[in-house]
């Protein structure tokens, strides 16, 4: 079933018509040399009409041998090495379909992505996290198809914040924590990402009947970290979810400066499993992302959005895993 407000995909059509995604692509794009019964074709067209699905016109250019460029936007944040690893694999796979992948990393003002839209005339744009601000406005103005990596394939990736929030809250509640807080970075460019993750944390907490999750911003230089930590502890908070591992390191600094202990007085969990977490004091519990799962989802979603048959079914591995260390 297509979620309310979501763009129907060829995978949705395939499920409704009870055929493979490749069959949907062959029927809707008039692929030559394919023996598909009239009954099956009618079922595909009926499902497409019911869902309001329209094949992406960019796919016709690809089938005509004219190729195209897809922008892949990674967020401006510390995510370890998986964005480069995933991007490199996606680039190779899409090249087999005549698609050139241009990897773009967000800057403070998103100017490089906006310029790439104007200079490269992409047929579509994909992003690891939801686009926002001037970049989102530029994409909308250009009328470029926006690809959600979870559409029709790994639904977990479409709501990555929910997956991370569930892992963090499930782990903390299993240890008896009930009163929780969320730590934002003070970097303005990372605020939308922090809000995105906080939504996932709050949803997971609410599902378990926990009190509302408090939140605060900690300065990158750690100057206010001890004060923030003391305020949290004074409010009864026993565990903190940080929007990224670097932010979690600042909270750990605040715990030490406040003369408190982690995890005895305040447990801390991050997100992105930065390698530095092994040597933090104490070693940081975090959430790790699986590059191969991201590759599978990215390739499947991009091909699906361009009405091209996927090479194989996604394996539905978990995109995020808990890495437990000593901070919780």
Main features:
Rossmann fold, four-stranded parallel β-sheet, alpha/beta, 14% strand, 328 residues, single chain
What do you see in this structure?
The chain has about 325 residues and is α/β, with parallel strands linked by helices. It has helices spanning about 10-15, 20-30, 40-50, 55-65, 80-95, 110-120, 135-140, 155-160, 160-175, 190-205, 225-235, 245-255, 290-305; strands at about 70-75, 100-105, 125, 145-150, 180-185, 215-220, 240, 265-270, 285-290, 320-325. It has three domains: about 10-50, no CATH class; about 60-160 and about 290-315, Rossmann fold (3-Layer(aba) Sandwich), CATH 3.40.50.2300; about 160-290, Rossmann fold (3-Layer(aba) Sandwich), CATH 3.40.50.2300. Helices cover about 45% and strands about 15% of the residues. The strands form three sheets. A four-stranded parallel beta sheet has the order 2-1-3-4, sandwiched between helices. Strands 6-5-7-8 form a four-stranded parallel beta sheet, with helices on both faces. A two-stranded antiparallel ribbon has the order 9-10. β7 (about 240), α12 (about 245-255) and β8 (about 265-270) form a beta-alpha-beta unit. The relative contact order is 0.13.
